[in-house]
Amino acid sequence: MGDKHTEWERWAKNYDDDLKTWMSINDSEVLREFDFTGKDVLDVGAGTGRFSCRIASIAKTITIIEPCEAMINIAKERLRGQKNLNFSRSTLESFNPDKSYDMIIISELLHHLDIQNQAQFDKLFNSLRKDGLLIVLEPIKVNLIRFIWKLAIKNFCSFGISKGSKMLTEMLNPRVIKHVSCDRYLTKDQIHGLFINNNLRTRKHINDNFYLISMVKG
Ligand SMILES: C[S@@+](CC[C@H](N)C(=O)[O-])C[C@H]1O[C@@H](n2cnc3c(N)ncnc32)[C@H](O)[C@@H]1O
Fold first, then answer.
1. To test the ligand 1 pocket, which listed residue (3, 5, 66, 120) has its Cβ within 8 A of the most ligand atoms?
2. What mean pLDDT is reported for the chain?
3. Ligand 1 site, CB within 6 A
4. CA separation for the pair 112, 120 (Å, rounded)
């Protein structure tokens, strides 16, 4: 599946450990803001199924799309026994939704997509039910040093020395630095531009460091 996907095959085993403090903070924020109870959810580029795992017992169904074999195998293993899940080993581009969803979550994925390919975003919009929510969690393009600095200040202030230090240690891991410095990140305007054509209204804009927005289909 090409170089981009080999990166994920290599990282799959360490991915959760490398980013666990960071991700748990982001996940908690999403879970505080949105109620997934009884919803049909699509998790696009679900990786190791980290987020799906958090909502598996409350969502009605979860459809997981993930192209990387090593990643999706971890997701299948950790969600084993859960009856309300569907797994599709595919990219967003090749995914053919056969149902509609109340909530679609795209976490840390946009910067891996070909953003010129509008058809893939239209496909998401079409599979969202009326009043359905699209939740986007995405790092945004900023100066890397300023980003880490802001993140450190914010985390030491909000979460204390212990969690703040864990967070910084995660950021300084070479695998994470390589990923974060990849220069594929989008600006906020670019992110909005991807969905604006589809008349999705921004419902809530929550977090600036890690950009978390939700858009509702009217
Ligand atoms: C940074 S990880 C994020 C995983 C998960 N969403 C999370 O928040 O932990 C990006 C994931 O997107 C997957 N991915 C890459 N290109 C994709 C594509 N075109 N369509 C769907 N998923 C893709 C990768 O295999 C990887 O597992």
1. 66
2. 84
3. 8, 44-47, 50-51, 65-68, 71, 91-93, 107-109, 112-113
4. 13
Establish if 102 belongs to a structural domain: yes
pLDDT tens-digit map of 167-203: 777 777 787 777 766 667 888 788 878 876 666 677 6
How far apart CA 56 and CA 188 sit, in angstroms, is 30
- State the distance from the centre of ligand 1 to the C-alpha of 205, rounded, in angstroms: 22
156 lies in a domain? no
Q: What is the CATH number of the domain that holds 120?
A: 3.40.50.150
Q: Is residue 158 part of a domain?
A: no
In whole angstroms, give the CA distance from residue 176 to residue 192. Answer: 26
The reply to whether 206 falls in a domain is: yes
Distance 50 CA to ligand 1 centre (A): 11
- Can you tell me the distance from the alpha carbon of 112 to that of 96, in angstroms, rounded to the nearest whole number? 19
